[in-house]
Design brief:
mainly alpha; metal-binding
């Protein structure tokens, strides 16, 4: 077709130029193009391909950060953040073990520094397995079972112990002795009702939606599944053993009396300051009450508080 046969376009035939409906649309569009829509579209595919677990922190996020301007800086900051989060978590985990051991075995208190070094070195040796070529498979199976069940179980137990067995009102008085104010009603409701209900729902869902562990296309054998189940049950053994020892040492002629006594807060648990010990428990005994009285006490507390 020759250029002479092409008719010129008049102004009436030119379509009207599009307009932004709102300023926020223009702003969001600019942000999207700045980051790069191509990288954003690729991100869900990477998530689907690598899944969660270790792939989220060591594959997906580094891949996304590698597409940003100044990717070296962002990647370095990201791994520094992971290191700091890991150290912060280890402080809490290791301190629990250290305090529990030193409280039960007093001879360790004079050797606390050496004991801390031994515990940390033992954890380091256990963690070295994860750095081997097949370590990611071991990590995946442990993370598959530990992270899904144990935190919910421990959280439910803690809420029951502090909220109902020891009593949230007693716990609130302990907090008031240390901080000068008790636990607000909102947190009382969370500890006694909301948090254990949510954790129970998460635990039930984790059990009903359970599937054998996988890593990419790799299917774990039955021996690895059995190992993971043993790992998930192992932290509960210490609770069962300690509970059995406590019940066995409780006063009572029958096991029912021993169990009932074990579920009662000890009247020996009181502040070290003698001036306020008499007000901590009335007449030095632990009051027994009905369920609804316990609910009312947990929500609003006692009218007669400790002396200021």
């Amino acid at each position: 077709m020759s250029s002479s046969n092409i008719s010129p376009v008049t102004e009436d035939e030119i379509p009207a130029r599009g307009q932004w409906g709102r300023k926020i649309e223009y702003f969001l569009s600019m942000v999207g193009f700045t980051v790069g829509l191509g990288n954003l579209w690729r991100f869900p595919y990477i998530c689907l391909r690598n899944g969660g677990g270790p792939g989220l922190g060591f594959i997906i996020y580094p891949e996304a950060l590698g597409q940003l301007p100044g990717q070296n800086i962002w990647s370095a900051l990201f791994f520094v953040m992971l290191l700091i989060v890991g150290l912060d978590s280890q402080f809490g985990f290791v301190e629990v073990v250290i305090v529990a051991c030193t409280d039960n075995f007093h001879w360790l208190r004079s050797r606390r520094v050496k004991f801390v070094i031994v515990v940390c070195f033992a954890n380091f040796l256990c963690g070295m397995i994860m750095t081997t070529e097949g370590g990611i498979y071991i990590f995946q199976v442990i993370d598959w079972y530990i992270a899904a069940f144990i935190p919910a179980v421990f959280g439910i137990i803690e809420c029951i112990v502090f909220g109902w067995i020891y009593g949230i009102d007693r716990f609130s008085r302990d907090v008031k002795l240390m901080l000068g104010r008790g636990i607000p009603i909102f947190f009382r409701i969370c500890i006694c009702f909301i948090t254990p209900s949510i954790l129970l729902a998460v635990l039930v869902y984790s059990i009903t939606a359970y599937q054998p562990p996988t890593y990419g296309s790799y299917q774990y054998p039955d021996a690895a599944v059995g190992f993971g189940i043993c790992v998930s049950v192992f932290p509960l053994i210490s609770i069962i053993v300690c509970a059995f020892i406590v019940v066995l040492n409780m006063p009572g002629d029958t096991y029912k009396q021993k169990i009932t006594a074990a579920f009662r807060p000890s009247s020996k648990w009181k502040p070290a300051i003698k001036e306020i010990q008499s007000d901590y428990y009335e007449n030095g005994t632990v009051k027994q009450m009905r369920f609804f009285e316990k609910v009312k006490l947990n929500l609003i507390g006692e009218k007669n508080k400790l002396k200021e």
